[in-house]
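Q: I'm writing up a methods section and want to include an example of the input and output format. Could you take the sequence below and give the corresponding predicted structure tokens, formatted cleanly so I can copy it straight into the document?
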Amino acid sequence: MIEVKGRTLVIPAEERLLGFRADTGAEKRAFSVPRYYGDTDLALKQAELRYTLPSGAGGAGRIVQEVDNDRILLTWTVDEAVTAETGRVYVHLRFTGADYLLQTADGCFTVRAVHAAE
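A: Here is the clean output for your methods example:
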């Protein structure tokens, strides 16, 4: 599981590989986020996962949110838009609301080629 500490994504080594080029729905990543940032209840904000591919193209990932007393669990299903290119994929989380934006720093993941020649 990926932990959010402050504004940093703490990604265990075994979570860094997102899959292979053109995978879709094969991998999920879970992010554990403290529910409160200062006095702000992040469960009341819109959570979003943003990614940037090696080419610089980017988008938003599909996430499912579960909330308990102290934590928010965000589960991301990695789809073909994310695995369209091999190389490093940068990801960050955003929490937005009226007059509010909180973002984490980028975390780095990898998409690998199925064959060495790709």
